[in-house]
Amino acid sequence: MSIAIQIRRTGGPEVIEVAEVRVGDPGAGEIRIRHQACGINFIDVYHRNGLYALPLPLTLGMEGAGVVEAVGEGVTHLKPGDRAAYASQPPGAYSEVRVMPAKCVVKLPDAISFEEGAAMMLKGLTVQYLLRKTQPQGGLQPGDFILFHAAAGGVGLIACQWARAMGVQLIGTAGSDEKCALALEHGASHVINYQRENFVERVKQITGGRGVKAVYDAVGKDTWDGSLDCLQPFGLMASYGNASGPVAPVALATLGAKGSLYVTRPTIFTHIATREATQAMADDLFGMVTSGKVKIRVDQRYALKDAAQAHVDLESRRTTGSSVLVP
Ligand SMILES: NC(=O)c1ccc[n+]([C@@H]2O[C@H](COP(=O)([O-])OP(=O)(O)OC[C@H]3O[C@@H](n4cnc5c(N)ncnc54)[C@H](OP(=O)(O)O)[C@@H]3O)[C@@H](O)[C@H]2O)c1
C-alpha cells in the first residue's frame, strides 16, 4: 500500500485528497520506485484545475526521485537498489511508491541528492531543451540577449544559471524586488520587476532599442503581447506555459507585422519521448549540476500529505526556486 495524493474532480487546491492505494508489481517496460522526494511543478496545477484534462481519479505529480524496488520484463538500464530520478508521464509522482514506465527514469548520480533530483528533473530538462534546442535562427551566441519570464521560479532560476554558463545575457522578469534580486544572484544579466515596471520599455532600454533574439514565456496570457514586442525581427517566441492563464487565439498576420517572428509552443514530453533522448538530456543536465554551473535550490519543502498547501503557495506566487514533497 502507498499514500497517494489524488483528485477525484478538478478544481482548486481543496480537491486534493490523501488516499491509500494498492501498488502491484511492475509489468513489461515498467519499474516500481519508492520515492525519497517528489517534485512539484506548475503542470500539476493545470492537471488539478482541469486546464490540461486527464481521466479521473488521478494521482498528481510528474517528477520524483527514489530507489528502484523492482523492474519488469525488458528493463535493462535499471535494477533494484538503483538511485533514480525522472520527469515522466503519466502523473503519479505524489506518492510513497508507484509503478511507472521505465523509459524516462534515469540513474541519479551519487553526487546529486534525492531532493535535488526530485527538484530538477522536469524543470532542468525543460531548461535543457529550451536553451539548447529551442533557439532562434542562427542559434544563441555568447553576448546575445534573451528574455526569460518568471526568472525566480523553479524553471527560472535554473535558466538564469544555464544562460550564464552559455555566456548568454538573460533578462529576467519577476514579480517582486526580492525575486528580482534572486534571479540576478543566479546569473540573470538584467532583471525587471514586471509588477511595477513596463517590461517592453525596459527591454528596449537594456538592448539599446534592438530587442531580444528569443523570449521564453511560461506566464502566458498576461505577457504574450508584450513578449512579441520585445523581439528583434526574425526573433523566436517560445511560449511554453500558462501560469497566468492560456494565451488567447493569435492572428497569424501579427507575427508578420511585428517582424517575421517565429513562434513555437513546445512541451518537454515531445523532447523526452524516447529513452535515448531522455538519457542524453539528463546527462547534459547532470553535467551542469555536478560541475557546479547550475545549483538546484529547494526553497520549499512539504510533507507529502501537505500537497494542497504546496499548491496554494505555488499559485499565489509565494514560492521561489523549486519545491518538493517529502513522503
Ligand atoms: N512546456 C514545458 O515543457 C514546461 C515544462 C516545465 C514548466 N513549464 C512551465 O513553466 C512555468 C514555470 O514552472 P515552474 O513549475 O517552475 O513554476 P514557477 O516558475 O516556480 O512558478 C510559477 C511562477 O509564475 C509566475 N506567475 C506569473 N503570473 C502568475 C499568475 N497569474 N499566477 C501564478 N504564477 C504566476 C510567478 O512568478 P512571479 O511572481 O515572479 O511572476 C510564479 O512564481 C509554468 O508555466 C509551467 O507550466 C513548461
UniProtKB/TrEMBL annotation:
Residues 11-325 form the Enoyl reductase (ER) domain. Coiled coil: none annotated. Keywords: NADP, Oxidoreductase. The keyword Methyltransferase does not apply. SUPFAM superfamilies: GroES-like, NAD(P)-binding Rossmann-fold domains. It comes from the Bacteria. Pfam families: ADH_N, ADH_zinc_N. Signal peptide: none annotated. The keyword Amino-acid biosynthesis does not apply. This is Quinone oxidoreductase. It comes from Caldimonas mangrovi.
